[in-house]
Every structure is written in C-alpha cells, then in structure tokens.
Amino acid sequence: MFSLKSPIIYCKGVTAQRAELLQQELGIKSCNDLLHLFPYRYVDKTRFYKINQLQSTAAEVQVIGKITQVKRVQQKRGSRLVAIFSDETGSIELVWFKGVKWVKEVLKINTPYVIYGKLNLFNNTFSMPHPEMELLTEYKKKVQSAMQPIYPSTEKLTKKNITTKVVRTLIQNLFVQIDAKVKETLSPTFIAQYNLISRSEALLNVHFPTSQEKLAVAQHRLKFEELFFIQLQLIRKKLIRQHKNKGYRFENVGNYFNSFYKNNLPFDLTNAQKKVLKEIRKDVASEVQMNRLLQGDVGSGKTIVALLTMLLALDNGFQAALMAPTEILATQHFNAVKELLGSMDIQVELLTGSTKSKKRKEIHQHLEDGTLHILIGTHALLEDKVVFKNLGIAIIDEQHRFGVAQRSKMWKKNELPPHILVMTATPIPRTLAMSVYGDLDISVIDELPSGRKEVKTVHRFDKNRLAVFKFLKDEIAKGRQVYIVYPLIQESAAMDYKDLMDGYESIARDFPAPQYQISIVHGKMKSADKDYEMQRFVKGETQIMVATTVIEVGVNVPNASVMVIESSERFGLSQLHQLRGRVGRGADQSYCILLSDYKLSEEAKTRLKTMVETSDGFKIAEVDLKLRGPGNIMGTQQSGVLNLKIADVVKDTAVLVKARNAAIELLQKDPHLSREENRAILETYTQIQKSTGLWSAIS
Ligand code: ADP
Ligand code: MG
Question: Could you read off the pLDDT of 13-22 as tens digits, one per residue?
Fold first, then answer.
C-alpha cells in the first residue's frame, strides 16, 4: 500500500537514479519528504497588483504604472538610481545598484510600464531592486503564463535534468497519489481559534498557489504549525521540569544578605538589577528548582546580582558556586567577591586548573564539611572529586562557553538539583531566545548603571595608525591605559600569532621603555605568565595591554579607557561588542578604535558601521542575527531553529509570538494534552518526540 512513509521510489515518476539523486542532493528519502520540499519563491505573472494591495510574501509581483521621477543617490561607493513608480493608488521605489548610467538613459518618464520583481519593505516603503521591466505596449503582444513555484535545486540536479519543472510534476503526481489525504495535525477547534486553514489545503496551496492571498494563508498555516510544535515541546519541558524538579526553598532573607546590603553595597542598585533580583528571589523562594537565564549587556552589573543571589543561599544554610569559562575571569570574580565581602565572615575559595594539589585537597575537604561557603572557579568545579555538602545554587557566567551537558552535570552534585542561574553578556534577540532558551525563564538587565559615558567608537584605516598611536600617547599621558587587541582565528592561528608578535614589536618601538610599559597576553602563554602580565596591567604598572581575544570576556580594569582593535574586519559583531565592553567602566570618556584594511566585504562594512552607530547590545545582536542567520548564534544548535523548513526565526517574529502564546494557552488548559479535542496535537507531539524533526514526523 502506498503511503507517505514509502520510500521516494514509490512516487510516480521517480526512477532509481532520480531517487538516489534526490536523496543525495536534497535529503529526500520518503514521499513525505518530497511533500515537504517547499518552494523558496514563486513566479507570479497571473495578475497585476495595485500598489496599495502589495504585501510581503515570498512571491514576486507584477505592477502597471509610470515612472514619475528618477534620481541618482550618491553612496559611499558609486551611486544608486532610484525611480519613483506610481499608479493611481500609490508609489513604490525602483532601485538599481548596477548599470546606473545605462538604466538612467533608457528609462522613459510618464510612460506605462509593466514591472515585475521581488519587493523589499524598508522604512514602510516598498522598493523593488533591479525589476524586470517592459513597456506596456510590448507586454500586450505576448502570451502570459500562470503562477509557478520554484524549488530548491543543486548544480548536480540541474545537470541531471531534475529541474524545478520536473520536481513540480513529481509533486503533482504525488498529490494525485495521496488523493488529498494529508493527515491533520491540529484540532478543528484550534484551527478555528487561530484562524488557520487545514493542513491539506495549506500544502496544496503552498505548492500550487492560485493567488498571492492563498499563498500567504497557506504559508502562514505551515509556519505557525512548525513554530507551534517547537514551542509546545519547549514549554512542556519547562512545565515538566517545574513539576518534577523540586528545589530547595530559600525562605529567608537573612543576615548575610541584609548586612551586605546595608554595609557593603558600594553603590545603589539600578532598577533593572533590583527587578532581576526580585525575579530570582521569587524563584528560589518557591519549591521549584530555578532555571533562569540572566541576560545583561557588558557592564550592566551582573556580578553583584550573582553575589546577592549567593548570599541568599548562604542565609538559608546552603553553599553557592560560581563558574566562569576562563581562569582570568574566575580569578577576577574571586577577587571582586572577596573585595565586596570585605570583612564579612564568609569563606570563599578559588578552584581552577592551576590550583595546587595541597590547596585543592583543602578545598575539597571544606566543601564536604560545609565550612566553605562560596566556591568560585572554572570547569574544574565540574570534576567528580568536587563534592559539596549542600550546594544550593550554581551560577554560570558567560554560558555560551558551556554546553547544556555541563549545565545539567552541575545538577547532579546533590540530592535535589541546586538552583541554576546562567548569566550571559551576549544579548540574544528576544525571538531567538524564545526558541533557544524557551525552556528557561529569562531575566534581563536592560539598563546600565547611571553616569556611564558611552564609548566613542570610530573606524580608521591602517594607514592612519600613526595618528591613532599619537592619540594613545595623549591618553596615556593623562594617566589612562590602553588595550590593543589582535584577532586570533583557529584556522589561521600561525599567521595570526605572527601578526600579533609583529604588532607587539612595532608597538614596542613606538612606545619605548622606560617611558612606556607593555603587557602581552595570549593563549599560548602559560597561565602563570598570563596572570602575571594581567596583574601588572590591573595594577597600572603597564599602560598598554597587547592581547588576543583572551581578554574578551569579563576583564575589568576601570582605568583602561581605550580599546584598539586591529584587523577589526575579521571579528564578528558580538565579539567586537564584547571587546568594546572592556572599556567605559570608569569615570573617564572611553574610546574604541576599529582599525581595518581598505578592502572590506559588504558584511564587514555593515559590522563596523553598526559598531560605530550603536552601543546597544540588543540592536547589535539583531544585526548579527540578520547577517549570519541563527545557525551561527550561540546555543542555537540544540534548539531546532536550524531545522526549520518554512518559518524563519528572524523574519517570522509575529507568527512565532502567536505560536508560543498558543502553546502556552493550550498547555494551561490541557497540560497533558489528554482532552479528546487535542488528540491530533498529542499524536503529532508524541511522534516528534520520537523522531528527528517535525516534518518527518508527520506522515
Ligand atoms: P557585567 O554585567 O559585565 O559582568 P560587572 O558586574 O562586571 O558587569 O559590573 C561592571 C562594573 O559596574 C563593575 O565595576 C561594577 O562594580 C559596576 N557596577 C555594577 N552595578 C553598579 C551600579 N548599580 N552602580 C554603579 N556601578 C555598578
Ligand atoms: Mg561579568
């Protein structure tokens, strides 16, 4: 019996050779896979649109109108041509980046044209880059075709003649074979409630749309469904965890917390810090284990929140742990915590890979007998030998360096899982956070301590290095310190080390001793040497710190006011933002100087421009997400957002929010999906749990 689960070879028109190619090139194994090979665009010459009817879809559109005005817009490099194209209902812009001169000459003003192309929506205005154009009089002489889906393809498929047309025929055949019997995954009430169309109608219309409107509702239904089932899994996971993972209850705000707050707090907390503390406090005071992600831009003051949270644990008779990804960072946390605690009677220790074995034994012992209150360290905290008497909370800083496996390993150190607070300075756009961390609760510190001056950021070419050095000398003369950072990329490590060393030598020449003292820190150094160099800089004995990105995370030297980034075009946006966060921590005006080569890719230009224009970590993260896609954003690998077939976590924000709310509402009403009306949803959900992805599960 033919079913959608049948291997692709059972589809009409699929020969053995085609089956093999389809699998090899597009991963299509079953007829079901073929059904879910979605067109990535559509050619729509079926109808003409009035300008006020235009909407964003994956399809191209055809409009009749006239050009009323043509202007050349100068841009950094070259110019672009913009034509205002109007019909009686409105106007859009036609844009050319190439062939500007020639296009300008041939365009006819106030003459009816048929234009055809894809729309961009920018600042609420539609524009069409490089449209296909034809004079209306010419157009009328030709026969026109229908709306066509265009399928993903590869060079090999094209070469073997499996064209988009062939794929279209195969899918047509498939629809005949399955006789419109596509299983529904959502219940009728649900479909009605969210104004969706049926699954079979959606599939038919996504492959063979008869109009833009039908295509849009079909795409919406499938995107909604795709995002809904991901959210359903995440939220269910969260509910199950909350239900199952009983946690320690920190009932009291006691002496440690209160006395610290009264006597030791060096500044007033920002409102954002207070808000976040309240959220944490509420979590740990309940009987459920906390699993919270704390997002806060660099310098937003996460450390003090971490410390206060740990004091809550201590007040309730528990121990606390704080884990950081590098030794430098862990040491810095340790020093900061010691200093903040001052003379309070709290035992704090540091455990890293380089802790001497005698000290290590001592720590192990005091952890077990409970005399050690707070343990700060690196991955070393995860070793089996590290056993707490009663760990109440584990705080993980800069979580993107730790995997999920490690996170859960922390939990096993106890009879009940300790509360978990994950802190990250990598802002994640809200929508992505919903998909990646949908099973965690999220707190955001969205405000910097007052009095911070924005870091002035400029972009300079290598040629201007001497002027930059002069500027550094002036700043150093004022008593400030300076970072100069070099890229170090795994793939080109040898070359990069050479650049770093060459750079160091030339800096040493321009900044001669004894007037200037220079520290250098990089990954190949022994950690004791690194530490020594770092400490010299921290103490102000050296004015210049030459380093690779080892200083990227968390390092805090308030007197350092200039960050120079060499070959800045080679850094990713979030890395640049992290680096810049190393300055601007003191009272002085700080600067970030992005040095680069003249030759820059478009993407690199956008990155540098973004850095110069904004210091808002969330805005930067949004741009980063748009540039690189979700695949490169930390933490997405496990999240399923990469397996999306039709929805796009960046573009389909509105659908995502709707789908998430739908999932929450559904699980509130029917936590186990046990109601008869939700049977279809439960079945799909169960199948997804057992399989690799949504679409292969539904067949
Ligand atoms: P991050 O969130 O990057 O870890 P830190 O916790 O290192 O930030 O804080 C950055 C700096 O800001 C530190 O020097 C810290 O003492 C200071 N700080 C934190 N909170 C406040 C506040 N509410 N008011 C003033 N300074 C603060
Ligand atoms: Mg920090």
Answer: 999 999 999 9
Ligand 1: which residues within 6 Å by Cβ?
267-270, 273, 296, 298-304, 425, 449, 556, 585
Ligand 1 atom 19, closest CA: 301
Give me the CATH number covering residue 519: 3.40.50.300
User: What is the β-pairing status of strands 441-445 and 291-296?
Assistant: parallel
Could you tell me the CATH number of the domain that includes residue 66?
A: 2.40.50.140
Instruction: Check whether residue 592 and residue 464 sit in a common domain.
Output: yes
- Cβ contacts of 670 within 8 Å, gap of 6 or more: 678
Q: Give pLDDT, residue 699.
A: 45
390 and 268 in a common domain: yes
Domain of 406 in residue numbering reads as: 255-285+301-424
Can you say whether the dihedral through the CA atoms of 330, 336, 340, 344 is positive or negative?
Answer: positive
Residues 273 and 414 in one domain: yes
Coil, helix or strand for 115?
A: strand
Neighbours of ion ligand 2 (CB under 5 A): 554
pLDDT tens, position by position, 451-478: 778 899 999 999 999 999 999 999 999 9
Report yes or no on 218 lying in a domain.
no
The model's pLDDT over 352-399, given as tens digits with 9 standing for 90+, comes to: 998 999 999 999 999 999 999 999 999 899 888 899 999 999 999 875
In this structure, are residues 427 and 617 in contact, taking their beta carbons and an 8 Å threshold? yes
Overall domain count for the chain: 3
